[in-house]
Write a structure and sequence with these properties.
Number of helices: 15
CATH superfamily of one domain: Histidine kinase-like ATPase, C-terminal domain
Radius of gyration: 60 Å
Order of helices and strands: HHHHEEEHEEHHHEHHHEHEEHEEHHEE
Shape: rod-shaped
Number of strands: 13
């Protein structure tokens, strides 16, 4: 094999040499992204955001609608219960017993969809309306018109007597007609006095009254002008009832040694506001009205057995609410999707445009704007573009170098043949030897190119076998000792022990021979070339050291490139074809090893082959 011209050994292993010139994306391509920058995490966060917003909106809508429905239902239930209580206690105020209450309860139960049960205070049923269910532990209310609940009946005063419980104060038709006649006369007077009649109200007892508006002074003048006080005089029926009430009150105040009082239709003591007196009046009124009202009873109001629970009502308002929430969620989803999609599609479009750029144009670089997977992809694309440009330049240079390397021997052969054809050169032994030398050089270049092509395609035929490295080094040194002596260079070998490795003997001799011939060529007369080996637990290390011209630090990364020469002015005869060291690297890698170099210009250059040891020799 022909050695390379000034293609000195590189200062890096093949793996390192391949990594040079890579963009920053390649160096980071194997790094693990922080989770916060991962595209997967961002997409997951966007999905979770949309899902959370959707769930929150749905939960809010369901809670809002259900709460509204429940509140409406509860309000309706409370209103119905209040209506039931008011109706039942009104019946009790106007009747002395509960014998005819069941039809009333049935109508209430049908209208309110509630189950109504009326019992005595010891829970004996009086009347039931609605589906049969067990009575609850606690009654809904106590129905007693003489002790009504002011919270449930706004018209009831603090003493708790229902105004509808009138008993002996109920006016007969004759007395009521007489009072209505007085009202008509007073209304005529009011029309003449104030220009319009006043409103007329009627109490539960049947007593009518006129309601005047305006301030107190105006009402007093109007009353005096028309004699409205005529309506305040008790009728005979009311007089008898008041006499009975006053007798009861007198008996109470005498027992408590209180001053006598007189009670009128307002049921307030005349000239005495003592609380004890008022309690006597309230007690007397209950005693007077008790025979005329129904006895106290317990009221149970419960839900019907088949009544539906409050639910979602798809009313127009709820429909609008659902549509509004759905539109809001849809808008949020579209906004998030567009935002995330734009951030994803933008760099991908830039990568697509750069990848579609015609091959003859300069390769574009895409900006790396993110630190996620797309950012790494953009950085890797930039690195790929850079390497493609570099490989394109190498390909062009290699084609040019191949043409140049083949042109020189072909031109020489053609020139000698044309000279022989023209009779200018004699076809003697020297002539034939010169043509043969040029043909051998051509064959050598073609063989080198074929070896590299086989290595690139992975078709190197390796026949490994256990080799004693000391013997192999002696053979290679003996083959190159004549070349070294002719160049005035001292060639020596040195082996530590006799390490054994598994390798193809032909390929390994070719590899070490290329390095030796390259070292001898670049070592001046009087210099030294040393071939030595040593071994570690797992590897065998072969070194080719020379005291030649050395290699500049800036050239070390390129010495394994094909057709590369440190001195571009050197010819093939003085500098080789530029393929030898490229073949050294391919053969070393085919053996599973690495090649490296260290050089000090003008002092020493050391090539180092690191190959795996044979398994048997490790024991």
């Amino acid at each position: 094999m022909a050695a390379e011209t000034e293609a000195r050994a590189a200062g890096e292993t093949p793996a390192k040499g391949r990594g040079r010139g890579r963009g920053r994306g390649t160096g980071k391509g194997t790094d693990r992204l922080p989770l916060r920058r991962s595209l997967l995490v961002r997409l997951l966060a966007a999905s979770i955001t949309i899902a959370v917003c959707s769930v929150a909106a749905t939960a809010w809508l369901a809670a809002r609608t259900t709460t509204s429905a429940i509140q409406h239902e509860q309000g309706q239930v409370l209103a119905n219960d209040a209506q039931i209580y008011d109706t039942v206690i009104g019946y009790a105020a106007g009747h002395s017993d509960w014998s005819g209450v069941e039809p009333l309860l049935s109508r209430l139960a049908e209208r309110t969809k509630r189950r109504i049960t009326l019992t005595t205070q010891d829970r004996r049923p009086l009347a039931v309306a609605g589906s049969a269910t067990a009575l609850p532990t606690r009654a809904s209310a106590l129905v007693d018109p003489l002790r009504a609940d002011p919270a449930l009946l706004p018209g009831v005063t603090a003493e708790g007597i229902d105004p509808r419980a009138v008993g002996p104060y109920r006016l007969p038709e004759a007395e009521r007609g007489e009072l209505l006649g007085r009202v008509e006369t007073l209304q005529a007077c009011l029309r003449n006095t104030i220009g319009s009649p006043a409103a007329v109200t009627e109490a539960p007892s049947g007593r009518p009254s006129i309601v005047l508006t305006g301030d107190n002074g105006t009402r007093q003048k109007t009353s005096e002008a028309c004699g409205l006080y005529a309506l305040d005089a008790p009728t005979p029926t009311e007089t008898r009832a008041l006499d009975q009430l006053n007798d009861l009150v007198d008996a109470c105040v005498r027992r408590q040694n209180l001053a006598p009082v007189t009670v009128g239709l307002s049921f307030a003591p005349n000239g005495n506001s003592d609380e004890a007196v008022q309690r006597c009046i309230d007690t007397a009124r209950r005693e007077q009205l008790a025979p005329h009202v129904a006895p106290p009873a317990l009221l149970f109001v419960t839900a019907q057995g088949g009544s539906a629970a409050p639910g979602f009502d798809l009313s127009p308002a709820n429909t609008v609410r659902v549509a509004g929430v759905a539109a809001l969620v849809l808008l949020l989803t579209v906004a998030v999707t567009v935002t995330v999609g734009t951030r994803l599609v933008g760099p991908l479009r830039a990568l697509t445009d750069a990848a579609r750029r015609p091959p003859h144009q300069q390769h574009l670089r895409v900006p790396v704007t993110t630190h996620d997977e797309i950012g790494h992809l953009a950085a890797a694309f930039n690195d790929l573009s850079e390497r493609r440009e570099r490989m394109e330049g190498q390909r062009k240079a290699m084609v040019s170098d191949i043409a140049h390397e083949l042109r020189t021997p072909l031109s020489t052969i053609r020139s000698w043949l044309e000279a022989a054809q023209d009779g200018l050169a004699a076809s003697d032994d020297a002539f034939i030897a010169s043509l043969l030398e040029e043909a051998l050089l051509l064959q050598h270049i073609v063989d080198d190119l074929q070896h590299l092509a086989q290595a690139d395609a992975g078709r190197f035929r390796m026949r490994p076998e256990p080799l004693g490295l000391r013997e192999l080094l002696d053979q290679v040194a003996a083959a190159h000792r004549g070349l070294a002596e002719a160049a005035g260079v001292t060639l020596t070998t040195h082996a530590e022990g006799d390490p054994v490795l598994s390798a193809d003997p032909v390929r390994l001799r070719q590899t070490i021979g290329n390095l030796l011939s390259n070292a001898v060529r670049h070592t001046p007369p009087g210099g030294n070339v040393t071939l030595r080996c040593r071994h570690t637990t797992d590897h065998v290390v072969i070194e080719v050291a020379d005291t030649g011209t050395g290699i500049d630090a800036g050239d070390l990364p390129h010495v394994f490139d094909r057709f590369w020469r440190a001195d571009k002015s050197r010819s093939r005869r003085t500098g080789g074809s530029g393929l030898g060291l490229a073949i050294v690297r391919q053969l070393t890698e085919a053996h599973g090893g690495t090649v490296s170099v260290a050089s000090t210009p003008g002092t020493e250059t050391v090539f180092t082959l690191t190959l795996p040891r044979c398994r048997e020799s490790r024991r």
